[in-house]
Amino acid sequence: MSAFKYLLRNECTLFSIGTTDLKKSLGKLIDTSGYILLLVTSGRAVATINFQKRILRKGCFVLLIYDSMFSIEEISPSFTARFISFSYDFMEVSVYKPHAIHFWDILYEMPVVYTSDEQWQLANNWWMQMEWANRIENASCREEMLKTNIRNLLMALDVEFVRNGSAALHIGMNHTWILLNRFFSLVASHYHETRDVKYYADQLAITTTYLYKLCKKNIQLSLQKVIDKQVVMGIKTYLVNTDLPVKNIASELHFEDVSYMCRYFRRLSGISPIDYREQHK
User: Fold this and answer.
1) Residue 96 pLDDT more than 70?
2) Band of the pLDDT at 101, cuts 50, 70, 90?
3) Which of 77-81, 95-99, 118-122 has the highest mean pLDDT?
4) CA–CA dist 221, 216 (Å, integer)
5) N or C: which end of the chain has fewer CB within 10 A?
């Protein structure tokens, strides 16, 4: 399924910077195997990030961490964004050092920042510095400059989180969001094999009741709804990006038979697989 994801960075490239309208990502998951930064410069979009709807508009700063679930549901014709995408290996050693232990958990919970006028100007200036650094010819100097700028950005975000009252999230959220993010990652990896709620709870070594309460309290979705959303996205990805017959898609996703998958898809999306394919091909 990774071959069907929308890529902002070639898999063999450690770092990429540019602009995008994300229109070609519709109907696909956006690959987040690493880190993605977006600065929305115009237009509006509706995104799903870790199973939560987020409105993206001019001034939004988005930071997506490795294994985040990210897709665009709706997008305006005028939507544009600056992007930076870099691999986990690019920052593996140095990225964590400046930050408190719960910093990344807060980013999972709050991946979208709606900037003030001052923050918007600072973000644009930072982006211009990154573009300048990316043009440095000496490879080792270029890499070190890029890493330094990224570390500075993350430290600034940490300061802003605390300044704006997010420090309260540091207390008690760590265990909850570690479990939820592990659950999201498990669903992304195994939804094509099983839709059994108990399987995921067992993998996390917790009860289904406890996992259900975590989901309802923190993302306002049931366990089954989270799994169903991922499965429907998977079916849509196959329908739009392959020519596989519907019965083969049902087999790939371990449905008992094609008619059951068609009923399942129609119930959750309001349209048959064939009609969805015809509308989006």
Assistant:
1) no
2) low
3) 77-81
4) 5
5) C
What tokens appear for 142 in the block? 């270029």
CB 185 within 8 Å of CB 177: no
Burial grade of 88 (CB within 10 A; 0-12, 13-18, 19 or more):
middle
Quick check: 227 and 205 in contact, CB under 8 A? no
* Separation CA 177–CA 50 (nearest Å): 11
The gap between the terminal CA atoms of the chain, to the nearest Å, is: 18
- What pLDDT score was predicted for residue 165? 55
CB 57 within 8 A of CB 43: yes
CA pair distance 186, 204, nearest whole angstrom: 9
pLDDT tens per residue across span 117-142: 888 999 999 999 999 999 999 998 99
Classify each residue of 58-67 as buried b or exposed e, where b means 16 or more C-beta atoms within 10 Å of its C-beta.
Answer: bbbbbbbbeb
Question: Could you please report the per-residue DSSP string of 87-111?
Answer: -HHHHTTTSSTTS-TTHHHHHHH--
User: Which residues pair with residue 74 across a beta bridge?
Assistant: 46
3-state helix, strand, coil in the chain (%, to 5): 55, 20, 30
Q: What integer pLDDT is reported at residue 253 of this predicted model? A: 94
The Cα–Cα gap between 39 and 3 comes to: 26
Q: Are 88 and 95 in contact (CB under 8 A)?
A: no
pLDDT digits (tens, 9 = 90+) for 151-179: 888 888 777 766 665 544 444 445 676 78
Band of pLDDT at residue 95, cut at 50, 70 and 90:
low
Q: Which strand (E) or helix (H) includes residue 62? A: strand 60-64
Compute CA distances 195 → 168, 174, 223, 227, whole Å.
35, 26, 10, 6
